Amino acid sequence: MSLQNQSKFNQLSLEKHLKNYFGYDSFRPGQKEIIQTALQQKDLLIVMPTGGGKSLCFQLPALLKSGLTIVVSPLISLMQDQVESLQDNGITATFLNSSLGLTETRRRETDIMQGKIKLLYVAPERLLSDKFLPFLELINAQQGISTFAIDEAHCVSEWGHDFRPEYRQLQMLRESYPDVPMMALTATATKRVREDIIAQLNLQKPYIHIASFFRSNLYYEVRQKTNAKNTFAETLQIIRTVGGSGIIYCNSRKRVDEIAYKLRQNNVSALPYHAGMNDEDRTTNQTKFIRDDVDVIVATVAFGMGIDKPDVRFVIHYDLPKNIEGYYQETGRSGRDGEAAQCILFFSYGDKKNIEYLIGQKGDEQEQRIAEQQLRRMINYAEATDCRHRILLGYFGEDFPGNCGNCDNCKYPKPIEDWTIEAMKFLSCVARTKERFGMTHIIEVLRGSKNQKVLERKHDKLSTYGIGKDRTVEQWKNLARSLLHRGLMEETTDGYSVLKLNQNSWDVMGKKIKVEIAIEKKHQIEKTTTSLATDEQRLFEELRGLRKRIADEQMVAPYVVFHDSNLRDMAQKRPQKLDEFIEISGVGSRKRDKYGKQFIEVIRNYCAEYGLPTKSEPIRELAKVVDNVPSLTQIETLELYKKGLSIDAIANERGLKTSTIASHLAELIEKEQPVDIDKLVKPEIQKEIIAAIEEVGDEKLTPLYEYLQERYSYDDIKLVRAFLRSDRLDF
Ligand code: ADP
Ligand code: ZN
Fold it and tell me: Which of 13, 103, 115, 357 is the most buried (most CB within 10 A)?
């Protein structure tokens, strides 16, 4: 390009360039200022969370500046990924690393020397090798080096979590090329690491951009891990409602294999990943995950380094992580594309004990102390009633105000109740039974069970027998767990989990310590992706199919071709021509030319086949979407109903209101589950309610209630209405 043309080209607005090369319509927060500064030849330090959009900050300037931008990156697998994505946007990028043969290396070097390349990715040890340095000289003399972009810059710091000595040598670049600007990028937020990067790389009055690490698209939730069966059922439910790709982290290899196997038994496509597998199997499973050949990867913490998959929709921690740093990094792998993702942690007191045991095995005392402290903070997080984002960000030194609107504690605040009296009852029952029993037995005594073990030991004669009938088993367990977590009671670790009293327990019984607990409520995982109408959803699936075929042909990951959000945009807008196709988010000029025709063809055929209106005419709601799968809480109610329990009994057992249970049953009826209306509402009452519905319609309950002169309860009306509705579905 001539100098004159180059300057004209640069005058186009940055937004135009962004759309043209990357297909995006607007910059993410911070990107534009960074790019403008980079174009002024200044040094930069960029601190952004994973998925914040760091790469674009050096990629776009690289295209707009003359000369070659050199990107230093420590991970070979990521290099290939980034380069493939860039090439797919028609950007001349390449990488040099040890995975290439000699001929291929030569070929790439020639391309670089001929000025065909704008971005070169290279690992630090190669960049600084004796063989490479003269080549670098040559490049600089011939076409100029426009920028050194140092990705994962925290690797220069011993204070970071990933120190790499070879990064220290990068100082040499500054000495040899004092005029070439440097851009350092990292997702590590601590001040110490930041200062270290500036000092080690000798950045000159750098423009520093520190983004908030608040990732508003990630939903954080902690669930009680009650028993193995429930935890697995809940996991299955999360996988099914959220859909898409996900990672499940477990603490042991054995557990990884077990969960992966059980998921496959339940028709979930899942594969394991842990250090006990051989390299080949691990790589295969990882590639399958990245290429969307498998939905779920069940893994130990060995998995994830260098995974750049943008569309991970959930990260489940099946076991308690050892520290917050690791936890944040692992959950941070979800939702890189900025779309909603779920981060669910299952927490149990038993996990805490297991980790404590492992810590106890460590030889070094100092190490032990640090590990214990980290574990404590992790547990504080798990038990907190505060905003989860606030706690996590606080850990990394960011003062986030809370009220995020996207964590369990903000969305469903747990009511705090004074349970001192109950705690006194519980602890004195432990005392009366001489500190020789576990939680289950104590609760049986409190609830007045006639179980053989209780009677044999004459525990029905104790003064605490039956004084806790007013609370459910689950409620007592919640209290007991809370007492344990806070050290108001102990539990033996000999495998019998016998409850023991300590000084705190006696203080509670002496009314010197007040016990306030957060009341657990189960809440439903919501489907997170932008919901599409049924037709759009089907078209979306077809577009996904096409994307997968193209990706397989090119041997790249599907997201290199298009992101899910791009396909969703296509399914909604249904472009029929190339100039409509380029309006889709994620479509730049190159992708329009490369893929436009194929995608448009699928869209056209689909519209023709289903008689769908094309772009700009909205789809009519053709049919109401029927969601026929009961939620987990409804299933729990159903199980008890099947055992023959009445609505009142179920409510009592579950610690929920009777009206809630009636609503569950009504929903279950609508979802065509085996709930018999005749057992719930007398036939003659049914008749009257049906007549009323025929008169007033079934939209609202209150008019029906009033029409029936308040003779029948809302619950009865709800149930009969559900029965009528389920009947109608048969047509
Ligand atoms: P990081 O390196 O900070 O972890 P990436 O640079 O990989 O993040 O960007 C994360 C994702 O966001 C990528 O899929 C990228 O294509 C996308 N992205 C970056 N900038 C924008 C933008 N301005 N608009 C839409 N998507 C963007
Ligand atoms: Zn919150």
Answer: 115
714: left (phi over 0), alpha (psi -120 to 50) or beta: alpha
Which of 328, 336, 559, 563 most suits a substitution to test ligand 1, by most atoms within 8 Å of the C-beta? 336
Q: Which residue's alpha carbon is nearest to atom 19 within ligand 1? A: 53
CATH fold of 632-725 reads: Arc Repressor Mutant, subunit A (1.10.10)
The model's pLDDT over 428-466, given as tens digits with 9 standing for 90+, comes to 999 999 999 999 999 999 999 999 999 999 999 999 999
Residues 447 and 469: beta-carbon distance below 8 Å = yes
Q: How many residues does the chain have?
A: 731
Whether 30 lines ligand 1, by a CB cut-off of 6 Å, is no
| Cβ contact 187:160 at 8 Å | no
Looking at all shown ligands, the one closest to residue 394's CA atom is 2
| Alpha carbon of 315 to ligand 1 centroid (Å) | 19
Apex CA 440: angle with CA 438 and CA 445, to 5°?
Answer: 100
Q: Establish whether residue 51 lines the binding site of ligand 1, counting it when its CB lies within 6 angstroms of any ligand atom.
A: yes
Q: What mean pLDDT do residues 25-50 have?
A: 94
Question: Would you say 517 and 479 are in contact if contact means Cβ atoms under 8 Å apart?
Answer: yes
Q: What CATH number does the domain located at 3-210 have?
A: 3.40.50.300
For the chain, domain boundaries: 3-210, 218-411, 416-518, 534-610, 632-725
Tens digits of per-residue pLDDT, 616-627? Answer: 444 333 333 345
Give me the residues paired with residue 417 across strands: 517
- Token couple for 29: 């927060």
| 416-518 and 632-725 share one fold | yes
Q: Which residues keep their CB under 5 angstroms from ion ligand 2?
A: 387, 389, 404, 407, 410
Assigned token pair, 428: 């004195």
List the CATH code of the domain at 534-610.
1.10.150.80
Could you tell me which CATH number the domain at 416-518 has? Answer: 1.10.10.10
Question: Whose CA is closest to atom 18 on ligand 1?
Answer: 53
Token code pair at residue 225: 């891990």
pLDDT in tens, 311-337: 999 999 999 998 888 899 899 999 998
Separation of 347 CA from ligand 2 center, angstroms? 18
CATH code matching the domain that covers 218-411, chosen among 3.30.300.130, 3.40.50.300, 3.40.50.2000, 3.30.70.20: 3.40.50.300
Per-residue pLDDT band for 11 (boundaries 50, 70, 90) equals: low
Q: Which atom of ligand 1 is nearest to the CA of 55?
A: 6
State if residue 54 touches ligand 1 by the CB under 6 angstroms criterion: yes
